[in-house]
Amino acid sequence: MSESSGPRIAVIVVAAGSGTRLGASAPKAFVPVGGISLLGRSLYTVLGMREPAQVVVVAPAEFVADAEVIAADVAGVAAASVTVVAGGETRQQSVLAGLRMVHDSAQVVLVHDAARALTPSALFDRVVAEVDARRHGVIPGLAVSDTIKRVDARQDIVETVDRSALSAVQTPQGFPKDDLLDAYARATDEATDDAALVSASGRRVSVVPGDPLAFKITTPWDLRRAEELVSRRDDSPRIGVGTDTHGFDPDAELWLAGLYWPGEAGLAGHSDGDAVAHAITDALLSAAGLGDIGGAFGTDDPRFSGAHGEVFIREARRMVEGAGYRVGNIAVQVIGNRPKFAPRRHEAEALLSEFVGAPVSISATTTDGLGFTGRGEGVAVIATALLLHNV
Questions:
Q1: What is the bridge-based pairing of β-strands 32-33 and 36-37?
Q2: Long-range contacts of range 263-271, CB-CB < 8 Å, 24 or more positions apart?
Q3: What are phi and psi of 113, to 5 degrees?
Q4: 251-262 mean pLDDT
């Protein structure tokens, strides 16, 4: 697919497996664990990545509509970033179908099995960071702890394999996009995974530390293990409150609720002073028990000098989803005489909802001339966030 601009990361989620060994009546990506399908759980993880990504789901042809429903339910306002396509007869054909939908803007492509539904978002971020740093393919893996024997056709032991040289690989597997495209263009035989294809094309692939939660749900025993892990979670919703206050700075531009307000005095602050974005960030971190904006984004960190509110909200969302939560909704109360919020309320709500991946509602009020906000000296904001478990 050609596109002039878009995310630099694409994630292909392979959900076309039959689930025969799982003993399920539907493809395994559509089997629920704790009331949420394996595909749904995988999408929650992908959408929790540090950077926004184009997501391509590859599903069995007869389940494309079901996958689209799952994607829309999980992605919410970010549903436009998820595309569902029909897969092929083999995994390799399915990945290729997904690759054909990747935007031109993508520089790094990750391929992930939906059957590894409990994989943390942090592992996706790690793979992307390693691909960026190494400039070649990277796959996560775990050290092999069992003693491995090589056997012959009669199952007689031939030798004991040195397990220090072995790694049990997982997904997501990440590659520079051009490397992966070239490997698929050259492929003549079926490979067990994408790393094998890229290696066969003469390109380097490295293994980085994986995560025990990225195990593949293939058998009924695996499914029971996943159910047990999910059932240990406290499913009660989490609520957090965040507040922020900034005085006006007539020499600064006004950024509030992610929007630029021309002709208005700005708000003083280390970043752009967006009190709405900062209150939302604090509410998200509070609900997840992850501290506050000062601890996560210190005012002494030059990376956040002048940063817009979107940066803080998206990073807080990544942290929240990496901790196993998803945003239910956020309510914001803006207190101040200006700017006049009503004309741009819907615009602000739509933009902030995109940042957090969930509905954001905004109301505004004044204090009838009382206090610093009543005197027109600044703005105060209160935000409340509701989090739900996504695992």
A1: antiparallel
A2: 264/338, 264/339, 267/378, 267/379, 270/299, 270/304, 270/305, 271/304, 271/305, 271/306, 271/307, 271/308, 271/309, 271/311, 271/312
A3: -85, 125
A4: 92
Q: Is 88 helix (H, G, I), strand (E, B) or coil?
A: coil
Domains delineated in the chain: 9-231 (3.90.550.10), 238-389 (3.30.1330.50)
Q: Do the Cβ atoms of 8 and 108 come closer than 8 Å? A: yes
Find, among 335, 240, 319, the residue nearest to 280 by Cα.
Answer: 240
Question: What H or E segment, with its residue span, contains residue 284?
Answer: helix 275-288
Looking at this protein, which amino acid is placed at residue 172?
P
Q: Rounded distance, CA 67 to CA 43, Å?
A: 11
Check residue 345 and give its pLDDT. 93
Length of the chain: 391
Are 114 and 74 within 8 A, CB to CB? no
316-365 pLDDT, tens digit each:
888 888 777 889 999 999 999 989 999 999 999 999 998 998 899 999 99
Mean pLDDT of 169-189: 94
What are 76-89's pLDDT values in tens digits?
644 557 899 999 98
Q: pLDDT above 70 covers what percent of the chain?
A: 91
Other CB atoms within 10 Å distance of the CB of residue 263: 7
Half-sphere exposure of 197 (CA within 13 A, CB side): 25
Distance, in Å, from the CA atom of 20 to the CA atom of 1, rounded to the nearest integer, reads 33
pLDDT-derived band at 122 (thresholds 50, 70, 90) equals: confident
